[in-house]
Write a structure and sequence with these properties.
With about 675 residues, the chain is an alpha/beta fold. It has helices at about 10-15, 30-40, 85-110, 115-125, 145-155, 165-185, 190-205, 220-230, 235-250, 255-275, 280-295, 305-310, 335-365, 375-390, 395-405, 410-430, 440-450, 455-470, 470-480, 490-505, 515, 540, 545-555, 575-580, 600-605, 610-630, 635-650; strands at about 5-10, 15-20, 50-60, 70, 75-85, 130, 135, 140, 210-215, 525-530, 560. The chain has four domains: about 5-230, no CATH class; about 235-360, no CATH class; about 370-475 and about 640-670, no CATH class; about 505-630, no CATH class. The strands form three sheets. Strands 1, 2, 3, 4, 5, 8 and 9 form a seven-stranded mixed beta sheet that branches.
């Protein structure tokens, strides 16, 4: 089994003579990887440590099983070891160390004492070691690169062979580090230059930490990679965020670091517990909604873990005096930087933890909302109505911002949820606006609310935006239009479900919306009063409807009604569907008049079913919708002020791809409660 240990670069190379097998790909690091390594070293600090990656090593053995070795001219025994994985970062570190070796050699030639020994030590430890009088590389590259590596990079000689891509990458790495080393010498004395070079040497040789796996055979390597990469579930963005924040906490060299790590771990325990009851995907929704509300409302800037790393870029929290080229002499600068790191991360973590609880409550029909006191029941009912709309994600940043900024104001939160539900119903369900209609301004309002904008002003702006996308005329037109195919809309069941609720008497209970929308029930709970496909010989239908009217009106909203099972109605004539109310001497039957739902019973008032009655019913439904989802237009002066404020912000709608848009239809209907 592989032996695993964390070691420094000096320990990894130490008593080994390393070989990159010919089957490994050539050196491939480019500018981005080189810059990342240099930045890691720059931010490491003179006493810091940084995990630099994994090395997989395998000792070369004879047929008898003995480890192959060489003895250098100083009497050191070097074990021959193949670098099975990790050669890219290892080669890069040795390129940098050889650049340091040449710098110290140059300073020694200028007469600086002590640096000649450093140069010699670097050469024998990481570059060319003397074996029987010959310079042999401590790290031998594959056949295509080794001559260039030994002669040009380590040996300071001229290379006349053909340059391959690996050669060019090595040359670019040498040039990159030479430029950085030049910068360390700019404008400073020779003594300061030497001090900076020694600091860099320490950071590379003992500050970088590697997780080393020593394997017995190449076959073992596959087992390691399978264990590391395949058998475990890929990390979620939420887990990556936790790991990065813990890494930042490790940078603090005081009790603050341990305190921050404890806070992160405890908070993530709460976050995972809060989200564990919900369907998958909540991790990303939490991170995104929280980010939009608290950090940056522009969705185009949300790049998941990359955004979090940019926001909490560790370069912000490393004082100038700890960089390779110090820029500050304040002795307490690093202490202040660590405190800033603690404060920034602790606030982010605390609000994220709180939002995970708020998010869990938003899915829970029985959520207590204890902090809202007497308003809790109102919040619960309005939250249920919003969930039934199927459009929630676009409002989450706004709802989370309200909970964070005004945690005990139940009246405000209930009002906000109510306006969001009216927005969902009018803009998305009825007006059929695209999935991100108003998204940019909704996210901007969430940021404003979190940062302290007057909440009534936010509510007014929300109403103005709602009416901009779905004013009364647009709502009425969409409901009464004789050409709208409502049957293909998932929202038609929500619309008719809310209509049914409005017809119920106190104390009556309606099955949850999920009964009408879930699984095999989906197609059975919407009844076409005028059948989709009437019998060709059914005069009861064809005397009332022309073929053109049938095609135009069969899927209109006025021709749809919720029912518990439409199969019992089939293609019957309207008179048979209508039936007679249950009474003495009237047998029980399946008909509208004896229907379970109030909207079925209401159809029994019609003597016939014609194009005119469909349009009449649509007009009735439009009037009901405008009352159910009524939005009072704000005074003209207030509306103008809200629009001007939006224009001053320069907010434009983001017309991104479908992949960039928020997922608006949430799988929440299955969790919906029975509603009285």
């Amino acid at each position: 089994m592989a032996n695993q240990q964390e070691v420094t670069l000096h320990q990894a190379v130490g008593d080994r003579m390393l070989f990159v097998p010919d089957y490994q790909r050539p050196y491939a690091w480019e500018q981005k990887q080189l810059e990342d390594l240099w930045n890691d070293l720059d931010l490491l600090g003179p006493d810091g440590a940084h995990y630099a990656g994994t090395l997989v090593l395998r000792e070369q053995r004879t047929d008898s099983g003995a480890v192959l070795t060489s003895m250098d001219d100083a009497g050191n025994v070097l074990r021959h070891t193949d670098v099975v994985d990790g050669q890219q970062r290892l080669i890069t570190c040795l390129v940098l160390l050889d650049g340091l070796r040449r710098r110290f050699a140059g300073l020694a030639a200028q007469g600086h004492k002590g640096v000649d020994k450093v140069s010699e030590q670097l050469r024998s430890s990481y570059g060319l070691v003397e074996v029987e009088g010959l310079g042999v590389p401590k790290l031998r590259l594959g056949a295509d690169l080794n001559i260039y590596w030994v002669d040009k990079v380590l040996g300071d000689q001229t290379y006349t062979g053909q340059l391959l891509s690996g050669h060019r990458r090595l040359a670019e790495a040498v040039v990159f580090f030479d430029k950085r080393l030049d910068e360390l010498a700019d404008g400073v004395s020779a003594e300061e230059h030497v001090s900076r070079l020694r600091d860099l040497l320490r950071r590379v040789s003992v500050g970088l930490k590697f997780l080393v796996y020593e394997v017995q055979s190449v076959a073992e390597v596959g087992v390691i990679f399978e264990t590391l990469n395949e058998r475990g579930r890929p990390l979620t963005e939420l887990e990556k965020t936790k790991n990065y924040l813990l890494y930042l906490a490790r940078q603090i060299k005081s009790g603050l670091g341990d305190s921050l790590a404890d806070h992160i771990n405890a908070s993530w325990s709460d976050i995972f517990r809060n989200l564990s009851r919900e369907a998958g995907g909540m991790d990303d929704q939490l991170l995104r909604a929280h980010w939009l509300a608290t950090q940056d409302p522009d969705l185009r800037n949300w790049q998941r873990i990359a955004s979090i790393k940019t926001r909490f870029d560790r370069s912000k929290y490393i004082s100038g005096i700890n960089k390779l080229a110090p820029t500050d002499t304040q002795t307490d600068d690093q202490t202040k930087a660590w405190q800033a790191l603690y404060d920034d991360v602790a606030l982010y973590v605390s609000t994220l933890r709180d939002c995970s609880a708020y998010l869990a409550e938003s899915f829970d029909p029985q959520a207590s909302f204890d902090e809202f006191g007497k308003d809790a029941e109102k919040v619960r009912k309005r939250s249920s109505a919003l969930r039934r709309s199927g459009v929630v994600a676009i409002f989450r940043p706004l709802l989370l911002a309200c909970r964070m900024a005004h945690p005990t104001d139940g009246t405000l939160y209930a009002d906000l949820v109510d306006v969001c539900e009216r927005y969902a119903a009018r803009v998305f369900v009825i007006a059929q606006r695209r999935a991100n209609a108003g998204q940019s301004r909704l996210f901007r309002l969430s940021s404003d609310l979190y940062l302290g904008t007057d909440p009534q002003s936010v509510l007014t702006s929300l109403r103005v935006l709602l009416l901009e996308y779905a004013d009364d005329a647009r709502v009425s037109d969409n409901v009464t239009s004789p050409n709208e195919n409502w049957y293909v809309r998932r929202g038609h069941k929500y619309f008719l479900y809310e209509y049914e609720l409005s017809l119920m008497k106190v104390g009556e209970v309606l099955l949850p919306l999920s009964h009408f929308t879930g699984g095999h029930q989906d197609q059975r709970t919407t009844e076409h009063i005028l059948p989709q496909n009437p019998d060709p010989d059914a005069k009861c239908w064809w005397t009332e409807f022309t073929p053109e009217q049938h095609v135009a009106l069969r899927h209109s909203l006025g021709n749809l009604v919720l029912t518990l099972d439409n199969s019992s109605y089939g293609r019957k004539c309207f008179a048979e569907k209508r039936g007679t109310s249950l009474a003495h001497a009237v047998p029980k039957s399946t008909c509208y008049a004896q229907g379970t739902l109030h909207q079925e019973q209401a159809l029994a008032q019609y003597d016939t079913w014609t194009p005119e009655t469909i349009l009449e019913r649509q007009k009735l439904l439009a009037e009901w919708a405008l009352a159910r989802w009524h939005v009072e237009p704000p005074p003209l002066s207030v509306a103008i002020a809200a629009v001007v404020a939006e224009n001053d912000e320069g907010v434009v709608e983001y017309e991104g791809t479908a992949e960039d848009e928020l997922v608006l239809v949430d799988s929440e209907s299955s969790q919906e409660e029975s509603t009285a």
